[in-house]
Amino acid sequence: MRLQHVTQLAAAGALVLLAACSSTESSGDAAAEAEANDRDLSATGVAEASTTDDLAAVSEGRLAPEFTLTDTNGTAHSLADFSGKTVVLEWINHGCPYVKKHYTSENMQALQAEYTEQDVVWLSICSSKEGAQGHMSNADWNAKTAELGAVPTAVLVDENGAVGRLYEAKKTPTMFVINASGQIVYEGAIDDQSIPSPASVAKANNYLRPVLDALIQGEPVEPQVTNAYGCGVKY
Amino acid sequence: MDFRTILSTPPFAAAFSALTALQVPFEAQEEPAPWEAPAQRVRAQLVLDRDSLAPGEACWGLLELQPETDWHLYWEQPGDAGEPPRISWDLPEGLEAGPLLFPAPTLLREDIVVEQVHHGRLALPFLVRVAPDAQPPVEGNWKLAADATWLVCREACEFELQSFELQLRATPPQPAEEPSEDLEKAPLAPANASIAAAVAKLPVKLDGEALGWSRQPATASAGPSFAYTLADLPQKRTPDSPALAWKTVSRLEFFPREPRQVAFGTPAKLQHTAGKSLTFGVEHLPSATAPPSGVLVAHWLDGSSVALDLPAPTQRAAQEHSSDQR
Asked: What are phi and psi of A194, to 5 degrees?
């Protein structure tokens, strides 16, 4: 399944962006904006109900929320540190069967290596709370990362879940791609194979590659959202 | 707690690796490779209602899943996270299996993650049909092989796979009987009591003709919403049960099937009820384009409830009722 662009939302794109930001505004503004959004979508006609495979275009790519997290070596990293670079956020939980699939098959490690070599910043973020599946001590994290041969730029520990909630990361694995201007241009599944068998990776259509390759080439990328598969983030 | 899988057949995972295409009726996924995912948290069994079928006939089957205490399984639309039980079939030429059919789920909120789940035993009926022109196998028995998979979670999640083999004796076609039409409709009431009970628990399908929708702009108390208008409501659960008092419904829950239209766990607000009709509203997401299909559960104060299966409404309803009316 190739990424498709849902063009019927293009006309309402600007309003969609405003509506997507409305959750941070006062309720009065949100209501007015939503109402404007409502009228406009009615005027353009209503598209068919989306299926679980449908891809929605989020017109301009919302700005990636700023954050600072400490990595498993005790170093703090802020998203702002990577301004001007393409950044991948990979929500991770090594206990989740769907994350395991990508690491057992070495798919994730290969992606990390290939793209960090091309100056993409790759941040693995774990929002599991202490005591929950996926949470580990820094020492255990480093051992696990080494054991798996994973090569992200950093593994960031978000044990109070603040960044996960900021990004509304709900399952692992969920991938975000942030362009050099700090906009989220991809959010969702790593690929289209929602079964956790490592062998399924070979037949998977990887959603990240076209986005990252385009950004590296300096080509424009229309923001997209897909439906991720996986286990719930253990807040 | 130790679990023994009951009615488990020898694992066929190795046999599956040699097979090429599997018939997966509701999803275009290929069969999983033989990797280890033993069923440890869930006892599973797969049964058919009949031990023989003739060409043109259909029968019910049941995938029964019993998770360990406190572990849950997922509805066909799991919500913000999770994966539902699935069956990947390997069927002989001429046999077809319908999708797993689910009872209404319940909502599980874990921080910002809202899931549509099943607690406790989950019984999933499905239909198996033999095509009218199917050729019975030489040895007289059709062999059906199935890989059942599911994600089962408590705080942690585990993915499990169990393989089954079933057999159906092929009997000659019965000219007097009408061939069953499609796998969505029950050809016969199941004889097996468990299967019958599971089929009886399925949400009652509402006709698309009886369903309309409209958009409601934001008000002081609610954001922009989809309003669903249901006409021709079923008046009884079964022919023998008492009449359903739609006018006194106390609470509604709506479980969307399609994602990204209505957030999972959005309250369904009852706006209007009469004897045969009902209107409810659900706030939709900013980027929503059309009201999703889903299951509506109506609750009464005495603890009784009824589940309705709503297709995605396509007909615009006249906006008779505002979101603030009842």
From this structure: -90, 15
Cβ contact, residue pair A35, B217, below 8 Å: yes
Q: Contact, A168 vs B260, CB < 8 A?
A: no
pTM of the model: 0.81
Interface check A39 vs B, CB under 8 A? yes
φ and ψ at A42, to 5 degrees?
Answer: -65, -40
Q: What pLDDT was estimated at residue B39?
A: 83
What value of ipTM does the predicted structure carry? 0.79
User: Is B82 in CB contact (< 8 Å) with chain A?
Assistant: yes
Q: What is the pLDDT of residues A155-174, one digit of tens each?
A: 999 999 999 999 999 999 99
The neighbouring-strand residues paired with A228 are: none
β strands within A65-170, DSSP E:
68-71, 76-78, 87-91, 121-126, 154-157
Instruction: Give the Cα separation of B18 and A155 in Å (integer).
Output: 40
Question: Tens digit of pLDDT for each residue in B93-143?
Answer: 999 999 999 999 999 999 999 999 999 999 999 999 999 999 888 888 999
CA dist A136 and A139 (Å) reads 8
Nearest beta carbon to residue B261 from set A37, A50, A195 = A50
Alpha helices per DSSP H over B11-150: 13-18
Contact B57, B130 (CB under 8 A): yes
* A134 vs A141: CA distance, rounded Å: 10
